[in-house]
Amino acid sequence: MSKILPPGVLFLARVLPRLFSLPLLVGLGVHYASRRAGTKVPVWATLLLASASLPVYLVYRNLRKNARHRAEAASLGARFVPLVPSFGVGNVGFLPQMAWNRKFGYPGDGMAECLDATGSPVVNFRVLWQDIMFTTWPQHIQLILAADSGNYVKGERFQYGMDSVLGSGVFNSDGEMWKFHRGMTRPYFARDKISHFDIFDQHADDVIAIMKQRFAGGYSVNFQDLIGRFTMDSATEFLFGVCVDSLKANIPYAHNVAFPPPQSHDARAETANKFVEAFNEAMVNVAEREHLGFVWPLFEMFRDKTAAPMKIVNAYLDPIIGAAVEKKRTAELLKKEAAAEVEAETLLDDLLQSTSDPKVLKDETLNILLAGRDTTMHVMTIVIYFLSIYPDVCTKLREEILEHVGPTRRPTHEDIKDIKFLRAVINESMRLYPSVPFNTRECIHSTTWPSPDPNEKPLYIPAGSKTPYGVFFMHRNKELWGPDAEEFSPERFLDERLKKYLLPNPFQFLPFNAGPRICLGQQFAYNEMSFMLVRLLQAFSSFTLDEEGFAPEARPPKDWKNLPGRKGKDRFRPALHLTMYTQDGMWIRAKEADPMI
Ligand code: HEM
Ligand SMILES: *[C@@H]1O[C@H](CO)[C@@H](O)[C@H](O)[C@H]1NC(C)=O
Question: Once rounded to an integer, what is the mean pLDDT over residues 28-48?
């Protein structure tokens, strides 16, 4: 993307000539033809013909495309994906509807109605004559992500929108570029980095100290905010070897605390906080582009909305990356004399084995920060929410943890692997509220997907279709998980339900994706979350929700109450940018564990 011209101007420069070239040609054609024929066509008629030419051409092109699709579907022995009920011409009414839902609805609102109306787990949204095949069916997602992954890409449009923040990093590239980035990042995650536990331990202590202090003063804490700081401090430390210390900055009080006690300012932490805020803002802005679709540049007519926050992000990161590159250079010079191997400590050190290009290094580390931070924060927030509203689960989990690790000892890798119920609680939380509930790909070559009903013909997917998929719906489908699919029941990952539902069909649970682009940090995330949860349950014996602590507009609306499923049951408001989070956080209190037990 150009740094000089704003996205909107570039967009118009690309689109306007395409829009006006046909009417212009037709107008000129009519003008000169009539002149040569010696007749005079009035100006209004010329203008009318010229302006009608574009819609006529578009309709013609669309009819031709439809005919081609019918023929291709027939030759593949396939049927069309059910169309959603129409929202006006070109289905454009669907867009404001979805925008409203994103702002005020529950995740999946709008799409749920489409799935219900057609009775099909896969539907075609077909907005502006573009096929958008939204699937929630495990076999289709398996094809997209794993079995036929070569036929699907993130696509240029997705990358163009993300480019000003994520560049060509692993999360935002396809093909050879993606292979290059994945290849240089993978080794770090393949190694067993025991030292991470040192990083987690120190920040976990900080979190618990803040919680204890707040509870002692009678205040609740925003667990999402605190744990977001924990994941940010941990991530920056293992990525760059420099911790942003966001846990040392001012920590917010709930909206209903009239006179929050003054907090001491740690100037360094506040600067770092600015980095965190700018990073968040940039993420929110690129997510908005994805939601607006290909016309997003029109909403950034005069300025690139990510430019200002990225300036702050860059000002923070550039010196860190510069210093690391310099250190590597010096080490290489020394090595010639003293052959001393430099042990790669941080992910940045590790990446430096593959490249010294500061832009590549920054793209890659920012991609990992994006991929790893909010996702992990969200899952831990949901776990603590469920432990708050289901105290029996909390008690059982705590007993298992104390049995394996005791009340104070620092957990090891082995402990964490052994506490099966802990992993089941984490899995169950990610099943109901996955960090990446919706995702999207584009299909390169025409193909077919098996029909969910095996007695029906397969489904036709034309080349160039968008293929968004919703693990959110798949994870809650009663056909796949049984009648209690909407209940929080971690035991389903351990008891007879595991054999009955999940084991025969492992692709119905995909919190980390699957196939060649499966989450690189899956193991890391389980370790980080498990470590923190063990520490929390050693320190506290129970959690409660502080519903008053949530700002009124962040509480679930009254008319959701008693609706079926989790939408009617849960007491927070889930929201989405690139990943899921909860509006205004998660305000909780906890009871300190009795140190004698
Ligand atoms: C509970 C926590 C996490 C969840 C639920 C999660 C989930 C996901 C998902 C669904 C994707 C696929 C995105 C896509 O292809 O469009 C992904 C990709 C990725 N994740 Fe995670 N993630 C988590 C934590 C982490 C952590 C801690 C890291 C690193 C420190 C990480 C690094 C990555 C990377 C680098 C990718 C891109 C892989 C590629 O495209 O080849 N993730 N993650
Ligand atoms: C949790 O889910 C993962 C898949 O992400 C699976 O490999 C693991 O066996 C599950 N563990 C438990 C205890 O549920």
Answer: 88
- Which ranges of 245-390 does DSSP label H, i.e. alpha helix? 267-292, 307-338, 347-351, 358-389
Ligand 1 touching residue 376 (CB < 6 A): yes
Atom of ligand 2 nearest to the CA of 424: 14
What separation in Å is there between the alpha carbon of 509 and the centre of ligand 2? Answer: 9
- 370 lies in which domain range? 161-592
Is 178 inside a domain boundary?
A: yes
- Whether residues 431 and 567 fall in one domain: yes
For residue 558, is it within any domain?
yes
Residue 81's CB: how many other CB atoms inside 10 A? 26
Q: Is 114 annotated as a binding residue?
A: no
Contact by Cβ (8 Å): 24, 43: no
* pLDDT > 90 fraction of the chain, expressed in percent and rounded: 65
Ligand nearest to the CA of 158: 1
CA 522 to ligand 1 centroid distance, Å:
7
Check residue 195 and give its pLDDT.
Answer: 61
Specify whether 329 is located in the same domain as 186: yes
Range of weakest confidence among 44-48, 187-191, 587-591: 187-191
4 or 186, which is more confident: 186
Instruction: Look at 198 and 151; give whichever has higher pLDDT.
Output: 151
Q: What phi and psi values does residue 122 have, to the nearest 5 degrees?
A: -140, 130
* CATH assignment at residue 261: 1.10.630.10
- Domain limit, last residue, from 75, 90, 121: 75
Q: Are residues 165 and 289 in the same domain?
A: yes
How many domains does the chain fold into?
A: 2
Q: How far apart (Å, rounded) are the C-alpha atoms in residues 385 and 587? A: 9
Ligand 1 centre and the CA of 520: distance in Å?
6
169 CB within 6 A, ligand 1: no
Residue 457 has pLDDT above 60, yes or no: yes
Q: How far is the CA of 519 from the centre of ligand 1 (A)?
A: 4
Residue 107 lies in a domain: no
| Structure tokens belonging to residue 162 | 């993300």
3-state secondary structure of 303: coil
Report pTM.
Answer: 0.94
Give me the DSSP letters along 415-483.
Answer: HHHH-HHHHHHHHHHHHHS-SS-EE--EE-S-EEE--SSTTSPPEEE-TT-B--EEHHHHTT-HHHH-T
- Say whether both 166 and 57 belong to one domain: no
Same domain as 201, residue 62: no
Are both 293 and 426 inside the same structural domain?
yes
CB of 580 closer than 6 angstroms to any ligand 1 atom: no
Pocket of ligand 2 (CB under 6 A): 420, 423-424, 427, 493, 511-512
Q: Which ligand is nearest to the CA of 426?
A: 2
Tell me: do 168 and 62 sit in the same domain: no
Cα 31 to ligand 1 centroid, rounded to whole Å: 59
Q: Please indicate, yes or no, whether residues 311 and 452 belong to a single structural domain of this protein.
A: yes
Alpha-carbon gap, residue 114 to 85, rounded angstroms: 7
- Compute the Cα dihedral for 74, 79, 84, 85 and give only its sign: positive
Mutate to test the pocket of ligand 1, among 144, 375, 376 (most ligand atoms within 8 A of CB): 375
Q: Which residue matches tokens 């690790």?
A: 405
Choosing from 75, 100, 122, the residue where a domain stops is 75
- Does some domain include residue 550? yes
Task: Give residue-wise pLDDT tens across range 255-290.
Answer: 999 899 888 777 877 787 888 889 889 988 998 898
